[in-house]
Amino acid sequence: MAQLKTTKPASGLAKPHLQLKQLRRSYGHQTVVKDLDLHIAKGQFLALLGPSGCGKTTTLRMIAGFEQPDAGSIYLDEQLLADAHRSVPPEERGMGMVFQSYALWPHMSVGDNVGYALKLRGVKGADYTRAIDQALEQVELAEKRDAMPHQLSGGQKQRVALARCIAAQPRVILLDEPLANLDRHLRSTMETAFRQLHRQSGATFVYVTHDQAEAMALADEIAVMHQGQLVQRASPQHIYRQPRTAWLARFIGQGSVLKMEAAAPSANHAQGTGQCIGDSAWLHMAIAHALPDSRKPQAEILVRPEHVHVHAAGQGAGLPARVLDCIFKGERYALRLALALPGAQELQAYSQQPFVVGSPVAIDIAQAWTLQSAA
Ligand SMILES: Nc1ncnc2c1ncn2[C@@H]1O[C@H](COP(=O)(O)OP(=O)(O)OP(=O)(O)O)[C@@H](O)[C@H]1O
């Protein structure tokens, strides 16, 4: 692999950001990252989200410099970091990486682990000690400075790994499933720590995860990958409310993808993908007409459980349905319902009251989102 020497951007006024341009990487005959275009603004917290094997880690490793692209290029500011012919070595990219496995040196104290990169850079004496103390304070582990890694809990080890990363003051911090080894309670504590550190450090964060809840809780924007390609990139709110494809709608959050008749009678709604339908009466009609053997065109819509109102059968109008499941979730009940219509389409709903499994109900769908056909 030819190695590029680090060169500063030509202009100090250049707008700094990380750019992946038409990035491609294959292993044997399998192309795992396919012409990926991604621009990440300075100081942004971007989550790279997708199911196992979609190419997230390979993308992160190319940004870090552990893998070289087969085609395309990676720029930081205006500096070319890598393309198919050249690659700046990882240690010259000004990036830090936090792994799922913590990757602490077992024979070094917490303080020495945190200061490792600084020592390599020749930082010594009071500056070295101050940088370690500051980084450990940021992750609230100042009292563990002299402890050894084996004396720490999983969450503490991950915070040391973060402190080590921050102490080196990287421009970009790359995180590969850093919370995957932690229990649920610790994960939410660590999510708070990540958000604080992101704000304090001002660094650009690129965070790989397959957990949508984690991506939504942490990131300003989410880039969803599927089979090596970018499916959608937007804010968590946008991706949740307006997923582009049926695949993404199913992948992100709770919700049901229902079929409805694309050209329902009395429809004065424009048809097509990427639209919010808020007319309940029209929605009910279009869903009721989605006969499984219909020759008329069918469309797919996303219905989130919070938009489904359930009441006992006979108490008001609505689509007829039957309760398949009713699970107590603490603050509410989660229902699984089957429409009592041809096709028996299933959907999810929330309710403040329990419903008996098997009982007939009526449902109102307040809004839905039209989708592209399944990817
Ligand atoms: N060094 C390698 N040699 C061969 N195949 C590889 C190599 N690294 C990754 N792959 C394959 O590339 C595909 C993408 O892997 P990658 O680790 O990028 O996915 P991922 O989205 O991060 O998945 P996970 O969430 O499971 O880590 C997988 O099919 C994987 O088996």
UniProtKB/TrEMBL annotation:
One of its GO terms (biological process) is quaternary ammonium group transport. Residues 18-252 form the ABC transporter domain. GO terms for cellular component: ATP-binding cassette (ABC) transporter complex. Keywords: ATP-binding, Cell inner membrane, Cell membrane, Membrane, Nucleotide-binding, Translocase, Transport. This is ABC transporter ATP-binding protein. Gene3D superfamilies: P-loop containing nucleotide triphosphate hydrolases (3.40.50.300). Pfam families: ABC_tran, TOBE_2. GO terms for molecular function: ATP binding; ATP hydrolysis activity; transmembrane transporter activity.
